[in-house]
Amino acid sequence: MTTTIGIVGAGIAGLHLALYLQKHGIGVTLYSDRAAEELSSGKLPSSVALMGATLGRDGELGTNHWERPELGTFAVDIRVAGDPPLVLHGALTQPFLFIDMRVYLPTLMKDFTSRGGKLVVARCTAADVGRLAAGSRRCSRVSRSALPTSSPSAGSSPGSFAGSASRTHS
Ligand SMILES: Cc1cc2nc3c(=O)[nH]c(=O)nc-3n(C[C@H](O)[C@H](O)[C@H](O)COP(=O)(O)OP(=O)(O)OC[C@H]3O[C@@H](n4cnc5c(N)ncnc54)[C@H](O)[C@@H]3O)c2cc1C
User: Fold this and answer.
1) 49 in ligand 1 pocket by Cβ < 6 Å?
2) How far is the CA of 102 from the centre of ligand 1 (A)?
3) How far is CA 81 from CA 24, 38, 58, 89, 91, in A?
4) 97 has which bridge partners?
5) pLDDT digits over 33-68, tens only?
6) Pocket test for ligand 1, best of 7, 20, 30, 33 (most atoms within 8 A of CB)
């Protein structure tokens, strides 16, 4: 029997795990509540500093598209107001890298699908997980109001879920 792993959530953790399993020849279906276009045209979800361990994984997975010596945060200065102020300076042994998550996550989704990975756009509930484990490939239908707010691009609005709980990108 061929093993296929389902992963719910295409943040950094879900994408790295999916790409890692894929690299080792294990079939993966990745479920994301937002399509790449919705992520790239939506609000900035958070400003994540990619630290050494994350950048190391990106290197191993072939997903560090931003590896250039001039990019990175090499030191941190903290100043806490007071009399006297508290001032701390730290040089980082492993620089941080800030990549806009509206660029980073869609880029890794594209890496995953271009290598043959299956990405299903659907919001999965806890109850769906049991059904997925039993062999179903779909998450239950979701009402528009249950979806997170974002600024979806034309043609990819949550409304396009009508009639189908999920969309597959591969
Ligand atoms: C303002 C802010 C700043 C931060 N700064 C840093 C930082 O500098 N460095 C750092 O390491 N971390 C930082 N973090 C934490 C950072 O968000 C996490 O490190 C990282 O994004 C976690 O990735 P994740 O994949 O575990 O989760 P998430 O990024 O939360 O990804 C989960 C994904 O799953 C999707 N999802 C959720 N539920 C479902 C569902 N039911 N069905 C389908 N899809 C679903 C979500 O839409 C999301 O895309 C910050 C967080 C915030 C809010």
Assistant:
1) yes
2) 12
3) 50, 40, 37, 15, 21
4) 50
5) 999 999 999 999 888 999 999 999 999 999 999 999
6) 33
Q: Decide whether any atom of ligand 1 lies within 6 Å of the 10 Cβ.
A: yes
How high is the pLDDT of residue 1?
63
What's the CA angle centered on 157, arms 113 and 126, to 5 degrees? 70
pTM listed for this prediction: 0.83
**pLDDT tier for residue 166 given thresholds of 50, 70 and 90:** low
* Protein residue with least CA distance to atom 49, ligand 1: 11
The residue extents of the domains of the chain are 4-169
Instruction: State the pLDDT at residue 116.
Output: 96
Calculate the alpha carbon distances from 56 to 26, 51, 166 in Å: 21, 9, 33
Fold (topology level) of 4-169? FAD/NAD(P)-binding domain (3.50.50)
